[in-house]
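Try it yourself: sequence plus magnesium ion, in.
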Amino acid sequence: MNAVVIKEVGPRDGLQNEKENIPTAIKAEFIAALRKSGLKYIEITSFVRADRIAQLADATELVALLKERGLWDHPESYSALVPNRRGLDQALEAGLQEIAVFTAASDAFTQKNTNCTIEESLQRIAEIMSVAIPAGVRVRGYISTVVECPYIGKIKPEQVRSVALPLLEMGVYEISLGETIGVAVPDEIAALLDCLLEDIPAHRLAGHYHDTRGTALLNVFRSLQYGLTTFDSSAGGLGGCPYAPGAAGNLATEALVYALERSGYRTGVSLPDLREATGKVQGFVSRPLQMI
Ligand code: MG
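Structure, out:
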């Protein structure tokens, strides 16, 4: 009872914000150690163009290395972000059984990040879905800027719902609600969930809350009261925040595991083993990672 699913996004969402190039072998060791800690779901990379995110340009090599090292025995534990049809083809070729697609609740944000409107991003996702679903690949959907956009400010919950519903209709099994800039407080998350849960069951929603201003755990605990049981986090808080240099980005998995377990929730994750995993990449990032 009271089980919470933690979706580890460190190897992708975390590392993509780190400047120094991390060797593929270290990434494989990191992923192996994350698995050993008990994490059952890890977003391992993104099949993006090398000129977009150099850090993740080794996606195909990374999967090959995981297979070579006997770390592909539970491929259902792995996911990879896919921006377009080309990325999907590469992910399928590599043998991914789950992918993640992304859009945002703000046109200004999608324009700045992917050079398209929300509508155009949904069309791109529909194209991905039309191949992924018949291929038996599970698809998770990210919506960024669910509370506030760094370019246009506050986002209305109804706007988030208007993006979430078509994603679910297309066959996305779960929506990860990205509080991208880490400004939200629990009452704002509550207002968002009040709106979304009118049409969407709680088990199809996940919280992806950033900790830029120290509010991520507060938002997780408010979400638990609404019946959400899946949360994204990043080992050691890997990732930083591109909108607030020096500040935290992703919620640290260590902090999430600690707070949940101490509150009586079961995560299945061992903190000492998690620390060991974070230790694998600490030497490659410029700031101290959170290893409680
Ligand atoms: Mg994130």
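One thing you can check immediately is this: The radius of gyration is 17 Å.
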